[in-house]
């Protein structure tokens, strides 16, 4: 007896995660993961994964979660962006340590009503980014969530001894640099929220707004929110060449990063507002937001987004005068420009210098506000 | 100027997690973690943790989450039990691999309204169990949850090459053993739910029912649900002495474990219902449940709990005839008795033998049912 040639797709593909059940979800993950390298002795499917550590390397481990309603909204984040970002935010943490990523675990909290097809798209995007960065998914967990969807990733990587970038190595007089540009993610989120409000269906099932017809810079800002590109090469090259004394990623905004790097290094800091490399899309998006003709308002909103908005996933680096030349080489080799935005200072004061006037550095993004 | 001698406690201790904010929560975790061993180069407080791998060992990694409303209910689980269990379920996974635990990461999803004092009790219990098993908390993440409280733990451990216990090493003819006793966790949960229903306040803030006045065996069953004790020594000794060909923990019930171990090993299995070491508290609790005079009903309910209830966190081990003597030594050395409950068979059939009659092995606990 042969199988029927065209069974209805519904018989083959479960509609929701609850239809599929835990084992089918695990099977889906397994089917998407490429063949594992030889250092993975036991991958997905046992009580735990077993791996061979890399010789002569330190191990770097981080964990970060994306929670629906906090870090993303299915009303305006497509499933692929959610999967991408769940890994990207963890990659960014390893970049900030100068580490090369290696293995990931994925812990999923899934509402039973989540469309199985959406889960597949999410996982495909995560595995695609993993493959790009030579990360192997070695295990994880699947649980039902009675509330929001969440994706909790643990990522391990390796780094050579004495090549680790920490937050605490900064010295008084070091220059502060940020990679790329700031405020794009907060502006992109603002744009998406505005579109959702206009469409009047913040609770619709997965509508994704096309950025067609908008300017390139707006489109780029929205992409930066949905699909951040972690600065792996900058971190790895800066660590390897000892071009930076300290480093941290900007997950909670520049102000938070400066505050934490300075505190860990036992210094103060001055940040020059005029030097901040504001993403051009941010000014454009916030000018639509304010609906006022004054130029100053959107610019201020963009600066504020850069300082406190978070989610830019750029790197903040402290660079000593001695290593400035090496740091220029990092920018050249990584292809990612960096901008000097301030200086580590004696004492513990944290200052934002704007039009020559000093004010206290604002707070970063506050998770429980 | 001196500080006031008795500031009101409210000024010192935030009432809720939202009052405290992310940084204060991280400070709390740091304050509870004992000084870290020298292999931890960078612990809590940077973008990622940095550790020295253990020489000549394979690394074993697992992740498991506890979600409010799925794995626990604050109406009848005290905060200390939640913290304990979040780590215990991960320890159990390492036990099933024969690994010695080493480092943990804790990813917290916290409702803003969670009492800060409850969080502290939860974390203290987790750190206490970690210390007992020589586990160092090296990092984690704190996020706001707009829904349930969740605690997601990633645990790493180490094992010698060729001493790993997997699910796939079982052979036809191997005896199946389980450690300790079965059905206690499901029965304990039943008892707690019944108490909550009787009190008519399933939604009260953290009432914890005293087990005083109940029998020792009921009290023990409730404890097994709230504070499972992972079988670390059994797993480690069985792995080290090669006393078992395959192993798995019983997180989703015996039926699920037998199904998965047999499938991974390419065998079938027979489980003898009469041989199951039912926890004495389970029969007692389920006899109260059924409210019927017939003895058969509670016993059947207890057997069903043992097979499909899950959360017992005992180990299922396959033992070859050759290594039976070594396996008896494991029981003696670990102080944990094990009971032969079945056999791996040729083919792929999974059979429950009850009163000499064969029936299909029931399903294990289904997470999305």
Strand order of the largest sheet of chain A: 8-10-7-11-9-12-13
Count of runs of 4 or more consecutive helical residues of chain A = 11
The biggest sheet of chain A, with number of strands, parallel, antiparallel or mixed sense and barrel status, is: 7 strands, mixed
Strand coverage percent of chain A: 15-25%
Helical percentage of chain A: 25-40%
**What structural class is derived from the secondary structure elements of chain A?**
alpha+beta
Kindly report the oligomeric state of this protein: homodimer
Most residues in contact, chain pair and counts = A-B, 71 and 71 residues
Cα separation of the termini of chain A:
63 Å
Topology summary:
2 copies of one chain form a homodimer.
Chain A: H1 9-12, H2 17-32, E1 40-42, E2 49-51, E3 58-67, H3 79-95, E4 100-110, H4 116-132, E5 136-144, E6 150-159, E7 175-179, H5 184-199, H6 216-226, H7 232-240, E8 246-249, H8 254-265, E9 268-272, H9 280-290, H10 296-308, E10 315-319, H11 324-334, E11 338-345, E12 350-354, E13 357-360
Parallel strand pairs in A: 4-5, 9-12
Antiparallel strand pairs in A: 1-2, 3-6, 4-6, 7-10, 7-11, 8-10, 9-11, 12-13
């Amino acid at each position: 007896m042969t199988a029927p040639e065209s069974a209805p797709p519904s018989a083959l593909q479960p509609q929701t995660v609850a239809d599929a059940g835990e084992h089918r979800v695990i099977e889906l993950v397994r089917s998407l993961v490429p063949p594992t390298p030889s250092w993975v002795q036991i991958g997905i499917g046992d009580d735990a994964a077993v791996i061979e550590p890399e010789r002569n390397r330190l191990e770097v481990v981080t964990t970060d979660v994306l929670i629906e309603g906090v870090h993303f909204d299915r009303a305006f984040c497509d499933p692929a962006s959610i999967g991408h970002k769940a890994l990207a935010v963890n990659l960014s943490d390893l970049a900030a340590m100068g580490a090369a990523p290696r293995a990931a675990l994925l812990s999923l909290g899934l509402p039973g009503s989540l469309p199985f097809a959406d889960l597949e798209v999410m996982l495909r995007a995560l595995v695609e980014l993993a493959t790009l960065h030579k990360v192997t998914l070695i295990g994880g967990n699947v649980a039902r969530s009675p509330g929001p969807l969440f994706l909790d990733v643990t990522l391990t990587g390796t780094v050579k001894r004495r090549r680790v970038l920490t937050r605490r190595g900064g010295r008084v007089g070091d220059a502060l640099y940020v990679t790329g540009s700031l405020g794009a993610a907060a502006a992109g989120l603002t744009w998406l929220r505005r579109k959702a409000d206009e469409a009047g269906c913040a609770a619709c099932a997965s509508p994704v707004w096309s950025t067609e017809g908008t300017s390139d810079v707006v489109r780029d800002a929205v992409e930066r929110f949905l699909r951040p590109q972690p600065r792996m090469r900058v971190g790895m090259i800066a660590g390897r060449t000892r071009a930076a004394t300290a480093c941290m990623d900007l997950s909670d905004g520049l102000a938070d990063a400066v505050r934490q790097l300075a505190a860990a290094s036992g210094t103060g800091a001055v940040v020059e507002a005029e030097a901040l490399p504001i993403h051009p899309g941010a000014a454009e998006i916030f000018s639509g937001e304010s609906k006022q003709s004054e130029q100053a308002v959107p610019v201020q909103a963009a600066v504020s987004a850069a300082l406190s908005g978070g989610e830019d996933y750029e790197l903040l680096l402290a660079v000593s005068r001695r290593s400035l030349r090496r740091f220029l080489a990092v920018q050249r080799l990584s292809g990612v420009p960096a901008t000097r935005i301030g200086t580590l200072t004696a004492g513990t004061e944290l200052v934002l210098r704007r039009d020559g006037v000093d004010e206290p550095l604002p707070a970063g993004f506050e998770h429980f506000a």
